[in-house]
Amino acid sequence: MASDPPARRDRPLSPHLQVYKPQWTSVLSILHRVTGVALAAGTLLLVWWLAAAASSAEYFAYVQGFMASGPGIVLLIGWAFALYYHLCNGIRHLFWDAGIGLELGPARLSGMVVVAAASALTVLSAVIALAP
Amino acid sequence: MSFRTPLGRVRGLGSAKDGTHHWWAQRLTAIALVPLTVWFVVSILMLAGAERTAISEWLANPVTAGLLVMLIVATFHHGQLGLQVVIEDYVHTEAWKIGLIVFVKFAALLFGGIGIVSVLKLAFAG
Questions:
Q1: How far is B96 from chain A (nearest CA, A)?
Q2: What φ, ψ does residue B13 adopt, rounded to 5°?
Q3: Inter-chain touch A128–B45, beta carbons under 8 Å
Q4: N or C: chain A end with fewer CB closer than 10 Å?
Q5: Of the CATH numbers 3.30.420.240, 3.30.300.30, 1.20.1300.10, 3.90.25.10, which one belongs to the domain with range B22-125?
Q6: How far is CA A48 from CA A44, A71, A117, B85, B112, in A?
Q7: pTM for this entry
Q8: What is the largest distance, in Å, between two alpha-carbon atoms of chain B?
Q9: Distance (Å) from the C-alpha of residue B48 to the closest C-alpha of chain A?
């Protein structure tokens, strides 16, 4: 920008992600954002499903058929993991907002708990939903 | 060429008087979504692969329909607040930034509205 003072030009942008070793806290932080964006798109699946149910039995059967197909199941399992991760990590964020668990050790441990809980809930849901 | 410092440019413009509103709305919807999401996931697992009639019977209960409407409202409000922050963080061209935020807010209202009308239709008309 020509009108900016010299100090503003070529000012380095932080953070310099490439010089940092990935850590539990940093990777899970960006995963919260990634799953949030994915869920925004995934919520359209829910609206599609509801609108189909409100439209006709034939169209609803078509949507249910898609959800039970290979790509549909992959999409739903991905959606379930994103939801469980964002839910569990969101609770972790609410504790942080209350000033609880912000130290390095607890923050790392709670992150591991969140990943374990989200993974376990995803597997459990898949087993329940796919059971004959 | 301006000799004014960045601080000099903003001094006196005053605060927007809603500094914490966005943050607070995102937390409130998050707190509401914790029980609503748990309820929804349990319900939807019960309905996996169900017929259309099972959905309308489920939504014939006003408590169910009310909870689902609230879930849709809280989800889309929370989602558009979050997407706004993501856009503000990564899109640095002013026109694109404003345009995308407007698009996200309109899309949230449209799809949230379609979701709510669908729930109400299933609740009232079966």
A1: 18
A2: -75, -20
A3: yes
A4: C
A5: 1.20.1300.10
A6: 6, 16, 28, 26, 11
A7: 0.88
A8: 71
A9: 6
Give the per-residue pLDDT at B20: 86
Q: Is B39 on the interface with A (CB under 8 A)?
A: no
Q: Among A123, A15, A95, A108, which Cα is nearest to B30's?
A: A95
Q: Tens of pLDDT along B10-69?
A: 777 777 667 789 999 999 999 999 999 999 999 999 988 888 999 999 999 999 999 999
**Partners of residue A129 in chain B, C-beta under 8 Å:** 45, 48-49
Contact B106, A37 (CB under 8 A): no
Across the A:B interface, residue pairs with CB atoms under 8 Å apart total 81
Mean pLDDT of B108-124: 97
CATH of residue A89:
1.20.1300.10
Would you state the pLDDT for residue A1?
46
ipTM for the whole complex: 0.86
Cβ-based contacts of A44 with chain B (< 8 Å): 111
Number of independent structural domains in chain A: 1
Task: Name the residue facing A36 among B72, B82, B111 (closest C-beta).
Answer: B82
Q: Establish if A49 belongs to a structural domain.
A: yes
Please give the DSSP secondary-structure letter assigned to residue A13. Answer: P
